[in-house]
Amino acid sequence: MTVESQLSLVGDLAADVSEVVTDELSRLAASTDRSGSVADGLPLAVVRAHSVADVRATMRIASAHRVPVVPRGAGTGLAGGAHGVGRLKRTWLEPELGADSINVQQRIKAALDLLGILNPGVGF
After folding, report:
1. ∠ CA 88-74-124 to the nearest 5 degrees?
2. N-to-C CA span, the chain
3. For residue 71, what pLDDT is reported?
4. How far apart are CA 58 and CA 21, in angstroms?
5. How many CA atoms within 13 Å lie on the side-chain side of 101?
6. How far apart, in whole angstroms, are the C-alpha atoms of residue 3 and residue 59?
7. Average confidence score pLDDT of the chain
8. Domain at 3-83, CATH from 3.40.50.280, 3.40.50.300, 3.30.43.10, 3.40.1790.10
9. Contact, 51 vs 63, CB < 8 A?
10. Are 55 and 71 contacting, i.e. CB atoms less than 8 angstroms apart?
11. What is the pLDDT along the chain (124 residues), one digit of tens a residue?
């Protein structure tokens, strides 16, 4: 993603969503859970939705820019459950879970992510 497209995305979000933060501390806080496990990278921005309209606008804008959205709840995922399997962990995924499990997970993701925008290239 180019710097220009990143700026465009953040600008579109800021124009239509109640609260969008891009400071490093907020992005770092959003990339971890209470276990202390930290994701492989930081999000470009953090949307703090205040309404259903904020969620709708976020999803519409993310879809238009073809960028993934990772929802975050209370940050209580176990051992990094707040984020998906990162690129750095991909080599250990099949030996750990087995080929059949990976195949099922890939089919579920394909069925739920028809546009291929949820964590593209990450995990599967």
Report:
1. 30
2. 20
3. 82
4. 13
5. 7
6. 21
7. 82
8. 3.30.43.10
9. no
10. no
11. 889 999 999 999 999 999 999 999 999 888 887 766 767 778 899 999 999 999 999 999 999 999 988 887 766 654 444 445 556 667 777 887 888 888 888 888 888 888 877 777 665 5
Q: How far apart are CA 35 and CA 81, in angstroms?
A: 9
Q: Given the structure tokens 């599967």, which residue do they identify? A: 124
Identify the residue whose tokens are 């940050």. 75
- SS3 assignment, position 21: strand
Please report where in the chains the tokens 């953040």 appear, as a residue: 10
Q: Please give the C-alpha separations between residue 5 and each of 2, 28, 54, in angstroms, as whole numbers.
A: 5, 21, 21
d(CA 49, CA 37): 24
Provide the residue ranges of all domains of the chain, joining segments of one domain with +: 3-83
